[in-house]
Amino acid sequence: MKSLMMQGTQILATGSAVPDFSLSNEQISQIVETSNEWILTRTGIKKRRILTGTHQSIIDLAVVAALKALNKIAMDASEIDLIILATSSPNDLFGSASQIQAKIKANNAVAFDLTAACSGFVLGMITASQFLQNGSYKTVLVIGADTLSKWVNWSDRSTCILFGDGAGAMILQSCSKLDNQILGFQLNTDGNYCNHLSLLYEEEINPHPILNLYQGSFKYISMNGKEVYKFAVSQVPLSILKCLNSLNIDVNDIDWLLLHQANDRILTAVADKLSIDTNKIIMNLNKYGNTSAASIPLALDEALEQKKISNNDLIVISGFGAGLTWGTAIIKWKY
Ligand code: COA
């Protein structure tokens, strides 16, 4: 997609947060019939962080991630104009972003939620860049946060092994076109396959006794793992190639491949299809599992902490998941 860019987008800082409690594959094998060996060989996941107890929520994780990013650049939260919370597990269906706005005291910011499951952070970042590039706002905080441990069926071994909780934040600011860091993007949705991965609202069997009204609730994540796998390894490389082609960037010029952290086999298959060396893959899913909208900013923040990424490195970022929705953004990193 071509954008009429009037200004550029700069990435000022990142931050992340995960719950304290770590749940190993061995511990999961005491809950459902599985083994460390099965989970590790099929997914690459060794453990994941889970939000236990009643005192912490997704908001706490998101707030910690946001404050870490703000502290890194000594920015006062009052400078933020817009907060986008990418999440599919809010603690309020009317929106959770406003709670973050209040907690970090971003009193000048408008705040809203964006729901796009595991692609949420990429969509949030691109949405933010549009507000920045057209001059509507100067500073945007994008947070990807999910607590899917609350939404998996802990007796379904095909899904409960995959997911973990976490949050990642990014502060973006408008800048001159010359300093632009988000070089381009490519986004897609195919709702025909929404049933492959969903968390559906389910109505009760009996209606209200007076009104013919069926109420219900959201139940558990349901997934066709094989179909999701096939979708990811076929569509993500295409999205990346389309995006690179639109920018006239050669795949060999890519320094880092930062994909949604779903499964190590998906990540290496995508790299193989693009002939990208596997040592260019940023991967931390062994420690955190699939943290949905949090996975990309969490992995990016960790890679930056580890000083893996150098000035002017080109990073391909791709998200994919429920919807089905998937997309790519190409970033030039600048310190
Ligand atoms: N432990 C042990 N056995 C398990 C298991 C588990 N946790 N989960 C499933 N199995 C069993 C199945 O029951 C099946 O047994 P059967 O052959 O006796 O019927 C067997 O293992 C194979 O199951 P299958 O679902 O075909 O495994 P798979 O090789 O497709 O691997 C996934 C399952 C989920 C790891 C894989 O499909 C996958 O990674 N898909 C992508 C999922 C994803 O990333 N989703 C999020 C995207 S955002």
Automatic annotation (TrEMBL):
Major location (coarse): plastid
Annotated GO MF terms: 3-oxoacyl-[acyl-carrier-protein] synthase activity; beta-ketoacyl-acyl-carrier-protein synthase III activity
Catalytic activity: malonyl-[ACP] + acetyl-CoA + H(+) = 3-oxobutanoyl-[ACP] + CO2 + CoA
EC number: 2.3.1.180
Residue positions of the active site: C118, H260, N290
Cross-referenced Gene3D superfamilies: 3.40.47.10
One Pfam family hit: ACP_syn_III_C
One of the record's GO cellular component terms: chloroplast
Pathway field: Lipid metabolism; fatty acid biosynthesis
Name of the protein: Beta-ketoacyl-[acyl-carrier-protein] synthase III
Organism listed in the record: Dipterocladia arabiensis
Gene designation: fabH
